[in-house]
Amino acid sequence: MAPEITQHGTNQQHHTIRHHTAPEIILSPTKTPPPHGQRQPHQRRRRVAGGKKEQGGEHRGDVRGKVSPRRLSAASHSRLPPLPTEKIARHRMEPAHSSESEPVDPDINESDGAPSQDGRAASAGTGNDGRSAEAARYSERLLNEEHERWEGDRCPICFLFIGLPMDEHSKTNACCMKRVCNGCILAAQQRGMYDRCPFCRTPHPSDEVSALAMIQKRVDKGDAAAIHHLGNQYFHGVLALTKNVPRAIELWSEAAELGSADAHRDLGYAYYKGVCVEQDRPRGVQHWGEAAMKGHVESRRMLGVAEYDNGNHELAVQHWMISVKMGDEKSLHAIKVMLMKGHATKAQYADALRGYADAVEEMKSHQREEATRSGY
């Protein structure tokens, strides 16, 4: 059993919809606005491309962006390229390939000049060596690519990375499918903007049916985030939809083809755990790998869980060392457990603590801290 594996769940409230895979959708508020308090400047350093840091500005409610929808492609599970499965086919998984060679008639080999049984065994060994080398190259690629968080994890207003877990530190607007951090939502409300999206200024939907119509509009335009989010609604049977897991898998696959790292994450869970689909752990790991190479934090952590399940403790720690430096507290806890079991060193844990602290510091702002104190 791995140190930590997250589970999907739902928690519906009166005016919000929040669950593990779907960010919260903001509906029109019904409570009276809180009294305006003194605003703190939203000043924090942020990391931009190239590893440089710039000074973040005050929350600006009037910053806007554009969504560039792409054409919708047909969903297909078979389009994903096959990956080497030897490294993930050990311990709890069945091997993807058999190393046993078929019996060969010695008379046929001698009379027809066919390769002998020893020759075929040698050929099979060469093939296994080639697949093992391919698996090693892919594992090295996973560890070497993308040690920075996915840019989609930034708040589109303040441009700071959203705190983890993101569902607790942000909300998604159905109108534009933009995930806005709680600090920017508070800043907008302090300016009197309670019934509109703080990003695109569209009025919040009045009920779940209206919210679903907004999401469907983005889906029709080929928005990968909207397609993934609609899949979440079908998976959990919310927003006036009947639960339909096959439809959810289809939508997630479509969103993954359009580049959604969150969709790859959810497909990884579905196949690795066999949730309403035939269990296929190699395929689940493949989806997590695709998301991790985009900088998806949770998928990177789950790659470590998969390696732990296979008994590859050293590789598991290496994956968690990457995700912990993106600000993932669960990865920090996993490394601590590995230290206690003798699978990680004190130096690694100390490095993890420093990296985690640096990542958390870069996600802080006065406005976000005020939002936390206010109960957002």
TrEMBL record:
It comes from the Eukaryota. Residues 155-201 form the RING-type domain. Pfam families: Sel1. Gene3D superfamilies: Tetratricopeptide repeat domain. GO terms for molecular function: zinc ion binding. Keywords: Metal-binding, Zinc, Zinc-finger. InterPro entries: Mitotic_Regulator, Sel1-like, TPR-like_helical_dom_sf, Znf_RING. Residues 1-133 are annotated as: Disordered. Residues 39-50 have a biased composition (Basic residues). The keyword Zinc-finger applies. Residues 51-65, 87-100 have a biased composition (Basic and acidic residues). This is RING-type domain-containing protein. It comes from Thalassiosira oceanica.
